[in-house]
Design a protein that fits this description.
CATH topology: Porin
Helix content: 10-25%
Distance between the termini: 76 Å
Largest sheet: 8 strands, antiparallel, barrel
Shape: elongated
Strand content: 35-45%
Number of helices: 5
Order of helices and strands: HEEEHEHEEEEEHHE
Radius of gyration: 26 Å
CATH architecture: Beta Barrel
């Protein structure tokens, strides 16, 4: 209970600090546009890395925090109605995955790794809920009371659509240099019996929540959690199976392709060899990859310019 009281006290102090900057109920009509800068962390959810169990490409429960990487976003928001916004954004994220961090014996033995820059362009619809800590303080002190018109805090839920570019690189086990994996066709893309070559531009659905508070009349600060569901399984260059003919892979794409397609540790004999029916052994799964970011944000509101109507002369 002491911790709860301490949290409430901090919230009340924060409310008193910013109360003079709260905007009036209808001020949103004067400040429809908002410029936003966001900086934070990015995480990948896919075939590689993850915790010490069977991986789930789409679940935050499989996050490996040692592989957290930076992210940056620039955004423009326009308020259509009091509670509805449209936001467009350009984001950069660095994501990574590495089997060496998991104690799952199969993935650890696979020993694959990757990193990739992601450039994302997205548009999303937002729904905002406004609330005031001043109203919370009044209710805590006096019980039921009239709601405050202050709108210093904003809780936002959003969903949208985006397009992003990725280009995975893997660390060569011999040289230690990161090599571009796309031209190496590590799963036999383009070879007989192999899959088609994947595209490095894909569609995603960003969704999440954000919270922000008025620092001044024109400046907001806050935090955002953004999860992206994607429609590609190749952000990490890993999808389904090893290519069944190592000699054909070597002949077509060279020794680097062979080395980076299967750098397994050998702790599970035959794990990457073809199955009895001649098909390739499992390398990944068929679940599409996803990625997410947590970012701190600061924004600046642009005031709308009022145009005065000119009086026409009656004469």
């Amino acid at each position: 209970m002491k911790k709860l009281y301490l949290i409430l006290l901090c919230l009340l102090i924060l409310q008193n600090s910013f109360s003079q900057n709260f905007r009036r109920p209808n001020d949103w009509t004067k400040y429809r546009q908002e410029l936003i800068i966001q900086v934070g962390a990015a995480q990948f959810l896919g075939d590689l890395g993850g915790l010490n169990k069977k991986g789930t490409d789409y679940s935050p429960a499989d996050l490996e925090f040692a592989l957290t990487r930076p992210s940056l976003s620039l955004a423009y928001k326009y308020k259509i109605e009091k509670y509805f916004n449209i936001q467009s954004s350009l984001s950069y994220l660095l994501v990574a995955g590495n089997d060496k961090f998991t104690k799952d014996k199969f993935r650890n033995n696979r020993n694959l790794n990757f990193k990739s820059n992601i450039f994302e362009l997205a548009v999303r619809a937002e729904y905002s809920l406004f609330f005031s800590l001043d109203g919370i303080k009044s209710r805590l002190k006096n019980g039921l009371s009239k709601k405050s018109n202050s709108k210093s805090n904003e809780l936002i839920g959003f969903i949208g659509a985006g397009v992003f570019y990725f280009n995975p690189k893997g660390k060569d086990p011999d040289s230690g240099v990161y090599e571009k994996l796309y031209p190496l066709h590590t799963e036999g893309q383009g070879l007989p019996g192999g899959p088609k070559q994947y595209k490095r531009i894909a569609i995603c659905i960003p969704m999440g929540i954000a919270w922000q508070i008025s620092l001044t009349k024109l400046i907001n600060i806050g935090v955002e959690m953004n999860y992206r569901k994607t429609f590609t399984d190749y952000i990490d260059d890993v999808s389904t199976t090893y290519y069944f003919d190592r000699n054909a892979l070597l002949e077509a794409y060279g020794p680097k392709s062979l080395a980076l397609s299967d750098p397994s540790l050998g702790n599970i004999p035959g794990a990457s060899l073809p199955n009895g029916d001649g098909t390739g052994a499992q390398r990944g799964d068929k679940e599409n990859d996803s990625f997410m970011s947590m970012q701190f944000k600061i924004s600046y509101l642009l005031s709308s310019k009022r145009t005065r109507s000119k009086l026409r002369s009656k004469f």
